[in-house]
Amino acid sequence: MKIIILDSNLGAIDLEKDVAQKYGFEIEKPKQCITEDDVISVVADADALVVQYAPVTRRVIEAAPRLKAVSEYGTGIDSIDVEACTERGIAVCNVPDYCWQEVSDHAVALTLALDRGIVRLDRAIRSGDYSLNSIKPLQRLSKRTFGVIGLGRIARSAALKARGVGYSVIGYDVAFQPGTTTPDGIAVKTLDEVLAESDVISIHVPLTPSTRHLINAATLAKMKPEAALVNTSRGGVVDTEALINALKNKVIRAAALDVFETEPLPASHPLCALDNVILTPHAGYYSEDSLFELKTRPVENAAEILVGGKARYRVN
């Protein structure tokens, strides 16, 4: 049986090969597939696919008669036609928990960088300005509210870490009843309440048809003018054009983004010209520990399906 890695920007596949060999399977990465046609050209003899961003569409599935599993590097499965896979009895797997600590750390780090003016101070001192003028006025963190959109593991972890440094925390999730409290003490509110009451809004939802451009001109207008937006989830959750307009017109104060609708983000992108934005290159997932899990678990998921076992994380 053959496992094919369609695409990956994670470097050499030695770890993936070790896992596949443990199960007795061949694994290869024939080329970096980008388009649907790229994928179709390599899947005819695939029993399982491991994918990062490449499209696994209905056409791809039809071109892969032996296919039994599609396994995602990471959490997001928006490039995979899960419905078409399910119709064919093909397992779709992901790794939803490999980096929850790192992403929640990154969200809080970006928040602190915004609310303590770290990046602005660094830029100022490098240009010879040793004053605090670039960051005035700042508020004490204990006077600020950290709101999370989404109340999954990463969101709750971020909220609790933010609470640990002084923020009040609130959250919204379609699966939670407003007016209640999560078991770890996060007050659940409506989306409009979180938008209106938060000084920092941190996004932690998957990209689905219902969450695409959840943050748009209308929702940005409901935020406080002095509020900031942090996104470490998926770029498509935020309407980039609407965010740029909001930042330019001071509808909101600032943003910190680790994910983008276009990745990699071009240096000529309008976001790069704004001084009230902090940008990081989809780095929130990364530590050496999470990278090991990210590279090995997708192959484990695929291999478990091929041997007739039960993958740890199957989504269909």
The level-1 CATH class of the largest domain: Alpha Beta
Count of runs of 4 or more consecutive helical residues? 11
Inertia-based shape: elongated
Please mark out the parts with pLDDT under 50 across 5 or more consecutive residues, or reply none. none
Instruction: Give the rounded overall mean pLDDT.
Output: 96
Q: Give a quick account of the main beta sheet: strands, pairing sense, barrel closure.
A: 7 strands, parallel
- Order of strands across the main sheet: 8-7-6-9-10-11-12
- β-strand percent reads 5-15%
Topology as H/E string?
Answer: EHEHEHEHEHHEHEEHEHEHEEH
Using the 3D structure, state the CATH architecture of the largest domain: 3-Layer(aba) Sandwich
Percent helix range: 25-40%
Distance between the termini: 22 Å
How many domains is the backbone divided into? 2
> Which fold name fills CATH's third level, the topology of the largest domain?
Rossmann fold
Cα-atom radius of gyration: 21 Å
Record field, number of beta strands: 12
Helical/strand content category: alpha/beta
- CATH homologous superfamily of the largest domain, by name? NAD(P)-binding Rossmann-like Domain
Summarize the structure.
The protein has eleven helices and twelve strands.
What does this structure look like?
This protein is an alpha/beta fold and 316 residues long. It has two domains: 2-98 and 288-306, Rossmann fold (3-Layer(aba) Sandwich), CATH 3.40.50; 100-279, NAD(P)-binding Rossmann-like Domain (Rossmann fold), CATH 3.40.50.720. Helix content is 33%, strand content 14%. It is built from eleven helices and twelve strands. A seven-stranded parallel sheet has the order 8-7-6-9-10-11-12, with helices on both faces. The protein has a five-stranded parallel sheet with strand order 2-1-3-4-5. β9 (200-203), α9 and β10 form a beta-alpha-beta unit. α5 crosses α7 (153-164). The longest helix is centred in the C-terminal third of the chain and has 19 residues, at 288-306. The radius of gyration is 21 Å and the shape is elongated.
